[in-house]
Design a protein that fits this description.
Elements (H helix, E strand, L loop, with lengths): L5 H26 L6 H15 L7 H17 L8
Helix pairs in contact: 1-2, 2-3
Length: 84
């Protein structure tokens, strides 16, 4: 499917807001000294972008929900469990 078809445009319009919010939150959290929260926030927003992209016959929404679940877990797990 071409990227600039109507479904491609709809997906881009739905996916863009969470990515813009992610960029803004990255700057705010980094300046506040909360960089350890960034991976969880990024995963949550990436998953949100996929889910809001609309229903997909390939099950892409399920992948978005998995990203959201893992992002939520990353926010509450100890930082020491992250990559060394």
């Amino acid at each position: 499917m071409p990227l600039f078809s109507m479904p491609g445009k709809r997906f881009a319009l739905s996916f863009s807001p969470p990515m813009v919010v992610g960029a803004l939150l990255t700057a705010v959290l980094y300046r506040a000294g909360l960089a350890s929260a960034l991976p969880g926030v990024w995963m949550l927003l990436y998953g949100t972008g996929i889910v809001t992209g609309g229903p997909s016959p390939s099950g892409l929404s399920g992948h978005g929900l998995c990203f959201m679940a893992q992002g939520a877990a990353a926010l509450f797990l100890p930082v020491s469990w992250g990559p060394g």
